[in-house]
Amino acid sequence: MCGIFGQISKYKINQEKFEKLVKHSEQRGVDSSGLIHFDGGIYKINRADYNIEKLLKKIKPYNSNIVLGHSRLITNGLGDNQPVIRDDICAIHNGIIVNEKEIWEKLTVQRKYQIDSEVIVAIAEEYLKNNSDENKLVNQILSKCRGVVACALLLPKRGKLLLFSNNGSLYVGYLKDDIYFASERYALDQINCESIKQIRDEALILDIPFSEQNLLVIDDNSRTENLIPEFKFNQNEEKLLEFKTLKELNLKRCTKCILPETMPFIKFDDKGVCNYCNNYKKRNKPKPKEELFKLVEPYRRPGKELDCIVPFSGGRDSCYGLHLIVNELGMKPVTYTYDWGMVTDLGRRNISQMCGDMGVENIIVAADISQKRKNIKMNLQAWLKSPHLGMMAMLTAGDKHFFRYVEEIKKQTGINLNLWGVNPLEQTHFKTGFLGIKPDFEEDKVYTNGVMKQLRYHSKRFKAMLESPGYFNSSLWDTLSGEYYRSFMQKEDYYHIFDYWTWEEDILNDTLINQYNWETAIDTSTTWRIGDGTAGFYNYVYYTVAGFTEHDTFRSNQIREGQLSREKALQLIEDENQPRYQNIRWYLDTLGLDFNEVIKVVNSIPKLYKEF
To answer: Where is the Glutamine amidotransferase type-2 domain (predicted)?
Structure first.
């Protein structure tokens, strides 16, 4: 996934305007970059594993009349970069092709690289051997590829540039004789383009200088860290992961739900029913849908104009929420994704697949992935020196900027309405409970607001941080500012889709998997949290030390809502709480931490239950 952009001028590019396009493209990622420019009758390609602004300063292609580029958030592909080149055909692509393996099996040309985007160029290479119609070429690509395809395809020996997209994540605008394109309209608005058009229904085919010369390619690779470490199964490592069955744990559990005696602040009455059950108020009780239709009516826009923002993680709830918003509510959304470095490729593929299938634009805001992971690493190292279950939330604090950038996207798009797909049953009192904070049974929101509640939380956490001074590191501002945007910033034009639609797991899973071929994980049976790179690790810690995870609290809420029997819930958690080796290994590899050392520390933490 990346930001793609370009300028095609009659004489030479406008440096000031081009640099603004470059700057905005970095919102989508700074992990690697690439430039294409026409110079002396030759199309020159520069690829680098550093940010686009640095590459631009090095190349300075300002005397060229054609410059195209990308700023990339590394996703599929371990080492290869864009632009992707085959047989003097060149492409820059925003999105992920989720069915690349199936396409390669049907092509006669051989695969050369690891990057998924290569399949676009391979289709073009094979097609153009015997055909000349560029419009039909675009149809071939879009009909074969699943996932988001927003692409600039360069055909130098035909003198053509093809711009096309299947989800609208590509815009073109004009300034006098100059043509500009970018992944988002906002970039073109910033340079005062006119006649801006979203490319979705049909390709834009532009004439560019013809060249018989071979493409000149220069790669600059200096990165020492691997942002997408290759998974290598290690049986001895997997054996380190401990797992006790429910029978082996032998924990007293609520007779109504399945919460165990190790749940913070749990109490049982004389019937063995816990206080969480006795104080539970049903949350999955939607208001009439007609109310939501009335609420969104003033936001609807005529024709094909976008009218709402859908925060989109690629998880099952936001994906199903998008399905409802498009097909039931009849809105025309743009999705927004915040990638903070712990979104797995599985999550990214599901984002691409849903947006591609539904023809929905996806705006990505990517953090500095390297820096975010360094922040997590520092906090995890501090945690390992003084393990504390109440401090596990420090490892996921970096994702709270999700709430901050919603406001930025509202400004950029001019769209105020944002519709969230948050599961009302994802309530986990224990995460703050282990910090010594009693559950507020009156709270009816997934995220707790309120100044006093936050001050109490930060006071408790500060005391825990003193036990391991390593928490006082350079990541602290990132943590605190993210939590401010989540908990204190006033939210306007903000509605939850599941306040009006019942959340039902079977219907949700059936719709996503059967209708959209939504991808599930290979290391767990659950569809929850599978795109989250942190979930496998923190749930392993909770289960190893306390004998339960967030799956226990979620299934307990389903029991209270009448969606699940207690017997079925126990069967489910027996499976769902098993260690996710692949997810845990990916997490520790991305942080550059030794799997054996970390797991041995976790396994040695004193248990909250008696071991037999």
So the answer is: 2-221
* 3-class DSSP assignment, residue 310: strand
What is the DSSP code (8-state) at residue 257?
S
Q: Which two tokens stand for residue 443?
A: 């709270």
Angle at alpha carbon of residue 297, lines to 291 and 302, rounded to 5°: 155
**Which is it for the CA torsion 194, 199, 200, 204, positive or negative?**
positive
Q: What is the mean pLDDT of residues 365-389?
A: 92
Say what percent of the chain tops pLDDT 70: 95
Stronger pLDDT, 403 or 564, i.e. the higher one = 564
Rounded Cα–Cα distance for residues 551 and 569 (Å): 9
Residue 175 near residue 226, CB atoms below 8 Å:
no
Lowest-confidence region among 82-96, 307-321, 395-409: 395-409
| C-beta of residue 499 within 8 angstroms of C-beta of residue 317 | no
Q: What are phi and psi of 343, to 5 degrees?
A: -85, 120
Q: Which amino acid is at 266?
A: I
Three-state DSSP at 218 gives: strand
| CA dist., res. 472 & res. 504, Å (int) | 42
pLDDT at 447: 47
Query: Whole-angstrom Cα distance, residue 189 to residue 206?
Result: 21
pLDDT grade, residue 77 (50/70/90)?
very low
The answer to whether residue 545 scores a pLDDT higher than 70 is yes
Count CB atoms within 10 A of the CB of residue 590: 21
Full DSSP string of 591-610: HT--HHHHHHHHHHSPPSS-
Q: What stretches of 108-252 adopt beta strand conformation (E)? A: 150-155, 160-165, 171-175, 178-182, 194-198, 204-207, 216-220
Positive or negative, the CA dihedral 86, 87, 90, 94 is: negative
Burial bucket for residue 218 (CB in 10 Å: 0-12, 13-18, 19+)? exposed
pTM of the model: 0.92
User: If you search the block for the tokens 């945690």, which residue do you land on?
Assistant: 383
Pairwise pLDDT comparison (91 vs 223), residue with the higher score: 91
Instruction: Judge residue 566's burial from the number of C-beta atoms within 10 Å of its C-beta, 0-12 exposed, 13-18 middle, 19 or more buried.
Output: middle
Residue type at 134?
E
Map residue 20 onto helix, strand or coil.
helix
- Mean pLDDT of the residues in the chain: 91
Cα 113–chain centre separation: 24
Under the banding of pLDDT at 50, 70 and 90, the label for residue 27 is: confident
Angle in degrees, CA 438, 380, 605, rounded to 5: 65
Please state, in angstroms and rounded to a whole number, the distance separating the CA atoms of residues 516 and 531: 16
Partnered with residue 147 across adjacent β-strands are: 97
Angstrom distance (rounded) from CA 28 to CA 4: 9
| DSSP per-residue string spanning 468-509 | SGGGSSTTHHHHHHHHHHHHTS---SEEEGGGTS---HHHHH
Token pair belonging to 414: 């001019």
- How do strand 2-8 and strand 194-198 relate by DSSP bridges? unpaired
Which position has the higher pLDDT, 575 or 343? 575
212, amino acid identity: E
User: Dihedral of CA 228/232/237/242: which sign?
Assistant: positive
Within 328-416, residue ranges assigned H as helices are: 345-358, 369-385, 402-413
Residue 421 backbone phi and psi in degrees, to 5 = -110, 70
**3-state SS assignment for residue 334:** strand
Rounded CA gap, 261 and 300, in Å?
Answer: 50
- Distance, in Å, from the CA atom of 35 to the CA atom of 39, rounded to the nearest integer, reads 12
